[in-house]
Structures are given as structure tokens and as C-alpha cells.
Amino acid sequence: MDYFEAASKTKEIQDQLCCCQYIGSDRKPYHILGCCCNCQDFDLVCTRLVTCQKIERKNLNGMLIAFQDRLRLPWVGGAKRISPAALAPGLMIPLMMGLAALNGKTALILMLTVMGFTVWGLQLAERTATRTNFFLSWIVFSVFYMILVFECEVPLLELLPEENYALIILSAAAIYCLYRTKKLSALNLVTAQYGTTPKDELPGIAEASSGEEQAEAQTTLQMESLLNDVDEDDDDNVVVMDLDGPPERSGLLHGQPNICEICRKVTPRRAYHCPICGSCVKRRSHHSFWLNCCIGERNYRWYIWGLLFSELALLLGSNLTLTSICHPFLVFRMLGVPILLPDDCSEVFEDFELGISFVVAAYAMLISCYVAFLLFRQIYVTWLGSTLHEYKRAPPTSRNRIWSNWRAIISK
Amino acid sequence: MVQQCHRVLILASVGTIIIYLALPFRFASHYPYINGDRIEDSLIAQVTANVSLQQSFDCIYKDIIENNRFVYDNPLYHEGILRGEEIRPGGEYQPEQCRAKYSTAIIVPYRQREKQLHAFLTYMHNYLRQQLIHYRIFLVEQSDQKPFNRATLFNIGAKIAAEYGFPCLVLHDVDLFPLNSGQMYACLEKPRHMCSALDHWRFNLPYRGLFGGVVAINTFQFQLINGMSNLYHGWGGEDDDLYERLRAMGISICRLAPEYSEYTMLKHKPEHPNENRRALLRAATLRQQTDGLNSLVYKEVERRMHSLFTHIMVET
């Protein structure tokens, strides 16, 4: 009941805010235009700087926190905070694309640099269990710049309207599916309905607030979905709020109980703890750094469809771009639309416009290779009747058992 | 309430962007065309006076059109002239086994494109003879140092071809090659845009008013519209001017199906565009009666009968 009231209160507060107002770290409403006012730590740091005194680290941290808190974007229901990690790709991507478009060597060097940086970044994020918006922002800006270059630099008079419609439909479908994947990720989290230990025994404030925040968001989203009847297709999967009754009874009703030692909760079967989300996730597949959310029971299908549509859109976009700026040859005709492949791209770097188009098309093909890898991995794991999380945690003997099963079938 | 307004605004913005991205005029055009089964009926059977009447029967073109196939990748068409003895001096050919029904003058404007010319003559002679038509290749070379005037060279070639009695003119660039065997080099009732599926434009037509590259037009129609404008020095505009002239005289153009109209373009350096071409194009119909065949001023330096083409060197 506390969650219900807290969610209602949060919603009421959000409704009262206009798009330029926000709630600061001290729980008071502020306006964007007042972002330069009333910053005590900043004043103190400047004063000490001018008077040549030692600057306290506490004041410096306070100043930086205030800066980050006040860098905001007008949004529905209150201004949203912009983190530097979310802004960095907006500058890095056009810089790299522009450099790569100069000639073939810089293009190759920068493509390899992007791949190396991405691999390193993903490994670093996974090792330190960091929840960051950097990769999601990278995707958003990549899509934006790809669309921009396609609409401004590629000679569109050489494309048929049907090809353009197909590209728009595939791109819109991909964006919508990935958006739904991220939206529904909150419904994957295991909440208090399965029982929890008393709050005073939780290990840390940060972890507790993270868990409570997740539960609050999930409760809000559940109420919205129930009220708006958005998930008509998932009626069988709608989780009924069962706040009454003892915890043991709820756990037994939902299946074999498990206990997560980190969350100190009773969790349903095939639910696993995600160290990045800080919570247990039902039927967890993996944490997608690119979408900054976990892939689990409620958003797995949207994720797969998102990958599929992304793959098709990227391949179609790069094919249209390359056959426009390079010399194409005709593979066959289908319903009056020529199906082409590029066969001579030796002159694309003689003109910067052609060069930037070529680089963006190559970048799209690079992304499509990665998306194809993700897609095939998911399909393979699903075909095994497992999830990626379970597959990775399976002992080597279990994998050998699969092979021995196949060998037994073949021998018989 | 405020939230709903924001949502409506966002949806309206996204919808506007998507509608703009989908507007069809920003993309290539579909165009009406003549299908393969109607091509032979559309061709006009007309020959020059000197076509021999010794053959006992007319040539059959139905099979040539129906068996349309990709021939550009055939190395025999590119390596050398096959059976060169069949070609008369001046680049003229007439089939011996049957009587040709179509006579065509192929007019090629030319200056300093030796490599393209060599490839063009080799391929086109091998290509055109399998169509069993009577043709002659006129190469009009501009031998002065002024900016290249493609339209004037066409006018000169058309005038000379008319003197030879050719009823059909094909205005042909030296760097364009037909890919499929069924593209008949003959004239129809209307002027025909032959290279409507060019590989340089992904085998699509950028806009319906495009009328350049390779054009087949009756000599009578060409004279009716007073030829092409002589004022387009440098690259660009004279093709659109020709299209405007035809429209002003109420003559519409036609195209064959894409599988017949596929052409490839050899690589070359881009020419310098003519800065005046837009201004000239705006006044195209106003100048039609005074600028063209009737105002053609040139000096014919030399006319030579090469083994593969009739070479006409002029100073404009």
C-alpha cells in the first residue's frame, strides 16, 4: 500500500511541473532559467580561488554535482538531466565520420578504432557493473547521423519511392521495437510481492534506494498498463498485484522458490540477479548495455523483433547508399524494382560528399554484422530452450551433454 | 492536460518528418513504357533510297526483340570487329541475307575521347549487325578549342544524315553502351529516350523530363522542331532544351520497357558545367524559331570515309 501511495504522489507532483521545471537534489522545484543562481559550492570555490586559499575537495565535488544536476533538457513532466556520457557520442561520431571521409586509409583506421573502443568500453562496463547511458546515446546519435547523411548527401533522385518507403517502414519498426524493449524492461524486475526481509537489514543506502526506485517505477508502469490496457496481447502474462497473503504462500503459488542472496528475496524460477540493474530479473537473458536495460521475460520478443528489423533496415540502407555512390550492377528485377549490388567503389573518396556517404554506409554494414551476431546468438540459445544467462552459466559438462545427445541420435 | 498537449506536439512533429521523408518527388520516377510485345508494331519501317532491293524477303525482327538478352558481358563483342569485311567504308552496314526494313543514322559528337571511341566502335558494330538493320555511323568532331558544343554537332550530323536520305536519327553519346540485344536502333512514331535505365542512375529515371544520352528521333520531326539550340556551350542543358522544344510542338516522347533500355556509361572526367544553361533553358521555346538548324553556322574542315565511321571535322 505504501508503494501505491508513493506512486500516486509522484505522479501528482509530476503533473504539476511544466516542461522547464524540475525537482532538484534537495527535493524542491526549480526552473531551468535559474540554473546559474544559488550555487553555494561554486561561490565558495571561486572565492577560495581568488583569495588563493586551498579548495576543499568536498566543495569541488559539490560544485560538479550541482553542475551535472542543472544541465537539463526541457521534457514532458519536468526537465530531464543530461549526463556528459550521453552528450559525448554527439560530438565523437560526426568527428570520426568526417575524418574517415577524407580518404581510404583514415576510413580504415577509424573503423578499426571504433571497433576497438567499443569492445574495450563494453568490457569495462561489464567488469565494473556500470550502468551508463553512453551506449544508448551512441545508438541514438548513430541513427540520427545515418538518417541525416542519407537524406542530405545520398543522391535521392536515383532511388525509387518504393525503396524509400521500405527503408522508412523498417527503420520505424526497428526504433519502435527497441523503444518497447526498453519501456517494458521495468516489468521484468522481481518485486516485493515475493516477500522481502526488513529494510533495516539491507546492506547499503544506495542499493536500497536503487531497489526501491526500480520497484516504484515498475509499480507505476504496471498501473499504467492495467489502466490503459496497452498490453492486450499479453493478457495471460499480466502480473496480478497480490499484496495480501503471506510471502511464503505467494512464492509457492508462483512456482519453485529460490532465494537471491544479494536481494535477500524469494525469487521465481529462472529469475536471476543482474548486478548492473541491482535487482533480480525474471527469465533474465542478459543486460544490454546498448539499451541500458535487462532483457527478460516481458521484453524478450520485442528485443528479437527489434534486432531483426534493425538488421533489415541497416542492410537496405547501406545497399541503397552504396549502389547510389558506386557503380552498380543489376542482379535481377522484381516487380519493376531493380535489385542491385555495388561492384566498383574506387572513386568514392574523390568527393567529400561521396566519401561521407560511403563511410556511413560502411558504418551501417559494420553495425549490421554486430546485430547479425547478436541475433544468431539469441536464436541459437532460444533453440536450445535456454536463455543467454543460463547458457553462459551452464557447466562445460552440460554443453558436452548436448553434443553427446546429438551423437547418440546419429549413432542410433 | 499539459502532458497530452506535449504528446500531441511530439506526434505531429514525428508525423510531419515522416511525411516529408516519404514525398515521392524527391526520388526517381516511374514512367509509362512500351512492352516487348508491342515494340515491333511501333517501329516505323523506312529505309534510304540506296538500300538494295535484290533480297527476296524482308528481315524478321520479331525474334530479335523477343530473344532480348544481356550481351554486354560477351567478350567477343569487345575484343575486335567480327567479320569486318561486311562493313562498308564510312561505317555503313546493310544485311545481305535479307532486306532491311529500317535505316538509321547514328550521330556521335566527339572530341578527344580516343579510348571511348575505340570501345564504342568495336562494340556498336558487333552489336548493331545482329539487329539486321541498315545503319551508318557519323562521327562529328569539333576540332577547335571552344567549349564543347554537343547540340551543334548533333545539328551538323543530322543535316548531313538528311543529305544521305536517312529517315531516322539516333543521337548517341560516345560513352554509352546498350546492355541488352533487343534495344532496336530504329525510330518509332514519337521520339524515343533510349537510355532510360542507365547504370549511373541505378537503372532508374531521375525525372520524367530527362531526355539525354541516347535519343532516337525521326529526321522529319527533328527538322520540324528546328533541331537543337546552338547556344549551349559546355556541359548541360541542351537535352532539356530539346525536350522543351518537343513539348512546345506538342510532340510527346516514349520509352521502351526497362529491360530493353539498360545502358552502361564508361568512366570519364566530368566536364565543366555551363553556367548559363538555366537561363537559356528558361527561354527555350522563345528562341525555337530562330536558333537551331536554320541558324547553323559552321565550317566543315574535312569529311573522311574511315573503315568504321564517317568522320566529319568541323569548326563551330
UniProtKB/TrEMBL annotation, chain A:
Please verify whether the record's keywords include Cytoplasm: no
- Tree of life domain: Eukaryota
Instruction: Give me the Gene Ontology terms describing cellular component.
Output: endoplasmic reticulum; Golgi membrane
A single Pfam family it belongs to is DHHC
Q: Where in the cell is it found?
A: Golgi apparatus, trans-Golgi network membrane
Give the transmembrane ranges: 107-125, 132-150, 162-179, 302-335, 355-376
Know anything about its domains from the record?
Answer: The DHHC domain is required for palmitoyltransferase activity.
What is the official name of this protein in its record? Palmitoyltransferase
Q: Which organism is it from?
A: Drosophila willistoni (Fruit fly)
UniProtKB/TrEMBL annotation, chain B:
Q: In which pathway does it act?
A: Protein modification; protein glycosylation
Q: Which Pfam families match?
A: Glyco_transf_7C, Glyco_transf_7N
Major place of localization? membrane
Q: Which GO terms describe its cellular component?
A: Golgi membrane
List, alphabetically, the InterPro entries matched. Answer: Galactosyl_T, Galactosyl_T_C, Galactosyl_T_N, Nucleotide-diphossugar_trans
GO BP terms, alphabetized: arthro-series glucosylceramide biosynthetic process; carbohydrate metabolic process; glucosylceramide biosynthetic process; N-acetylglucosamine metabolic process
Q: How does it sit in the membrane?
A: Single-pass type II membrane protein
Question: What residues does the Galactosyltransferase N-terminal domain cover?
Answer: 85-187
Any one GO MF annotation of this record: N-acetyl-beta-glucosaminyl-derivative 4-beta-N-acetylgalactosaminyltransferase activity
User: Per the UniProt record, which residue ranges are transmembrane?
Assistant: 7-25
**Which cellular compartments is it found in?**
Membrane
Q: Which UniProt keywords apply?
A: Glycoprotein, Glycosyltransferase, Membrane, Signal-anchor, Transferase, Transmembrane, Transmembrane helix
User: Galactosyltransferase C-terminal domain: which residues?
Assistant: 192-269
**Glycoprotein is among the record's keywords:** yes
According to its UniProt record, this protein's enzyme class is: transferase
- The EC number(s) this enzyme carries: 2.4.-.-
Family stated for the protein in its record: Belongs to the glycosyltransferase 7 family.
**PANTHER family per the UniProt record, alphabetical:** BETA-1,4-GALACTOSYLTRANSFERASE, BETA-1,4-N-ACETYLGALACTOSAMINYLTRANSFERASE
- Name this polypeptide is given: Uncharacterized protein
- Species of provenance: Drosophila willistoni
Q: What is the lineage of its organism?
A: Eukaryota, Metazoa, Ecdysozoa, Arthropoda, Hexapoda
Which gene is annotated as encoding this protein in its UniProt record?
Dwil\GK22603
